[in-house]
Design goal:
Layout: H1 9-30, H2 36-47, H3 53-64, H4 71-94, E1 98-99, E2 102-103, H5 105-109, H6 111-130, H7 135-158, H8 165-189, H9 195-222, H10 225-228, H11 234-237, H12 243-251, H13 254-266, H14 274-283, H15 286-303, H16 312-326
Helix pairs in contact: 1-3, 1-4, 1-16, 2-6, 3-4, 3-8, 3-16, 4-6, 4-8, 7-8, 8-9, 9-15, 9-16, 12-15, 15-16
């Protein structure tokens, strides 16, 4: 069994600093359009920052397999452009007012312009990916697009309704974890990894993505608004039942279940307060259950790297799950 140590945050940043800066520059260049409003919206979105965890995964995947190709920079920008485009569309669908502590782009430019800017960003990402002349890359990105669109449509159909854990995990796999999976597999695609390594990279990304989304959903319920950068309990207000809520629904009293159902159906806290919902969740250990489930997926991600050769990139990949599960935003 490997005794490889887990990297520190500083070691990961030092390892990737130049590549992440190059991706940021590439993203900015690729987002420039002759149509000024597209560039304005793109620049606003880029300035909003973000964790850049998806390009980080692609870089580490490629580095772990020995890649020094410029493709990792181009494709790192591609996955961040795709992610950014989906956030624009999500904000329009969810009628969100804020994103990362700032007004969402649609509150400034309106839904019509933003949905088209999101479409443009998405196609620009595919244009950049096409330059790689790599069918595996295109296959991964097309599959990703189908999964994310299907996930969004499925979620829209289930808004305000009770769902079970199986349905929840299907949704977050499509909407979030699949992009983590593809980000890892793109690193394999540019190094022509074996099917076995490709599968293990994908498994790491899938498990990490599930952990990431579960923690996101927990933070939506429990974090302070100034830390989270958006209104708390947005999911419940949008009629979305997440893992902790599903757990409490299955274990709560009749009154507990009715209170949760009321919030989901009303899509507001007009009749049942956020604090009342939190009390129900804590009383049934539902927040701890969701957090423990995320940690289990994070550990499964680490275990899936067993066959990768030891390297600084592998040490960094071992660090990422802990970052994902311990963050506060």
């Amino acid at each position: 069994m490997s005794t490889l140590s887990i990297a520190t945050a500083k070691e990961v940043f030092d390892l990737l600093r130049d590549d992440l800066a190059a991706i940021e520059k590439e993203f900015s260049q690729q987002s420039a359009s002759e149509v000024a409003v597209i560039t304005e919206i793109a620049e606003y979105l880029i300035a909003g920052g973000g964790k850049r965890i998806r390009p980080l995964l692609l870089l580490l995947s490629a580095k772990a397999l020995g890649s020094t190709s410029d493709s990792r920079i181009k494709l790192g920008a591609v996955v961040e452009m795709l992610h950014t485009a989906t956030l624009v569309h999500d904000d329009i669908i969810d009628e969100a007012d804020t994103r990362r502590g700032r007004p969402s782009s649609n509150t400034t430019w309106g839904n019509a312009k933003c949905v088209l800017a999101g479409d443009w960003l998405y196609m620009q990402a595919f244009h950049t990916a096409l330059e790689q002349r790599n069918f595996r890359v295109l296959d991964l990105l097309i599959s990703l697009t189908q999964q994310m669109v299907e996930g969004e449509l499925l979620q829209m159909e289930k808004l305000g309704h009770l769902i079970n854990e199986e349905e929840y995990f299907d949704l977050i796999y499509r909407k979030t974890a699949y992009l983590f999976k593809v980000s890892m597999q793109l690193g394999g695609a540019i190094t022509h990894a074996t099917d076995q390594i490709d599968a293990q990279l994908g498994e790491y990304g899938r498990n990490l993505g599930l952990a990431f989304q579960i923690i996101d959903d927990v933070l939506d319920l429990t974090a302070a608004e100034d830390i989270l950068g958006k209104p708390v309990a947005s999911d419940l207000r949008e009629g979305k039942a997440t893992l902790a809520v599903i757990h409490a629904l299955e274990r709560g009293t009749g009154a507990d279940r009715e209170a949760i159902r009321k919030v989901l159906a009303d899509r507001s806290f007009d009749h049942v307060s956020h604090l009342q919902i939190l009390e129900i969740l804590h009383r049934h250990g539902s927040i701890d259950y969701a957090t423990d489930t995320a940690c289990a997926y994070a550990e499964a991600a680490r275990l899936s790297l067993a066959d990768l050769p030891d390297s600084d990139a592998k040490r960094a990949l071992l660090w990422v799950p802990g970052f994902v599960t311990s963050r506060d935003r």
